[in-house]
From TrEMBL:
One Pfam family, short name: Hydrolase
Name of the protein in question: (S)-2-haloacid dehalogenase
Family: Belongs to the HAD-like hydrolase superfamily. S-2-haloalkanoic acid dehalogenase family.
Catalytic reaction equation(s): an (S)-2-haloacid + H2O = a (2R)-2-hydroxycarboxylate + a halide anion + H(+)
Enzyme class: hydrolase
Protein role: Catalyzes the hydrolytic dehalogenation of small (S)-2-haloalkanoic acids to yield the corresponding (R)-2-hydroxyalkanoic acids.
CDD domains recorded: HAD_L2-DEX
Keywords: Hydrolase
Enzyme Commission no: 3.8.1.2
InterPro entries given in the database record: 2-HAD, HAD-like_sf, HAD-SF_hydro_IA, HAD_sf, PGP-like_dom2, S-2-haloacid_dehalogenase
Domain of life: Bacteria
PANTHER family per record: HALOACID DEHALOGENASE, TYPE II (AFU_ORTHOLOGUE AFUA_2G07750)-RELATED, HYDROLASE, HALOACID DELAHOGENASE-RELATED
Length: 222
């Protein structure tokens, strides 16, 4: 029976929900601002991983917001920025997350949440989104002070789950995460949540591509 490890931000939980709050101030600029913020958040985690200068993912998020606010000359003072950061603690689950997890759980598959976020932050986020009950454990990168897609992060996952790479699946909507898992020897499923989403042309393909977690439950082998 396979072991499934789910990325959280962008796979189970919808971070783009913060655009609702951004629209009240930025209007039609909200989507572009959010995407720049999200891109910079991930860039900061990649850079810190390469530098060996780990900080909590929440700090990457905060520093990315400060950068994008300055770059876009957005009218967010310190209090407004703090309000936007708080929104990351109350993000909703995608509509298919709970039904998909139920279907997988009914097959007797072990499910884990696996995130760049801290144990406490991810636990609280999944709890408020109604998903915490589905997982055997939350595996956070904070234990190894690095970020996906560093190989040691995926080895940490295998150590915590006690599973073999050949029977462990990384499920993520983020291509960099899928590539990282594949490079580390894990199986991988890319959740393509948008038709506009593109997979990196690195000559490495996910073992499975699905449009939703319900489709994953239907198509996952074994």
């Amino acid at each position: 029976m396979p072991t499934l490890a789910f990325d959280v931000y962008g796979t189970l939980i919808d971070p783009s929900d913060v655009t609702r709050q951004l629209r009240t101030t930025l209007g039609e600029r909200a989507e572009g601002f959010y995407q720049s913020w999200r891109d910079k958040q991930l860039e900061y985690s990649f850079r810190r991983g390469l530098m060996g200068a780990y900080v909590d993912f929440a700090q990457c998020t905060r520093e990315a917001l400060a950068f994008v606010c300055a770059q876009a000359q957005a009218p967010f003072d310190a209090a407004a920025q703090q309000g936007l950061l708080e929104a990351w603690n109350h993000l909703p689950a995608f509509a298919d997350s709970a039904p998909g997890l139920v279907a997988l759980q009914q097959r007797g598959i072990r499910l884990y949440a696996f995130s760049n976020g801290s144990q406490a932050a991810v636990g609280a986020l999944l709890e408020q989104a109604g998903l915490a009950e589905f997982f055997d454990e939350i595996v956070s990168v904070e234990a190894v002070h690095n970020f996906k897609p560093a190989p040691l992060v995926y080895q940490h996952l295998l150590s915590r789950t006690g599973s073999a790479a050949a029977t462990t699946w990384l499920v993520s909507s983020n291509p960099f995460d899928v590539l990282g898992a594949s490079h580390a020897g894990l199986r991988s499923a890319w959740v393509r949540r948008s038709e506009q989403a593109q997979f990196d042309p690195w000559g490495i393909e996910p073992d499975l591509q699905v449009a939703s977690l319900l489709q994953l439950a239907e198509r996952l082998p074994g």
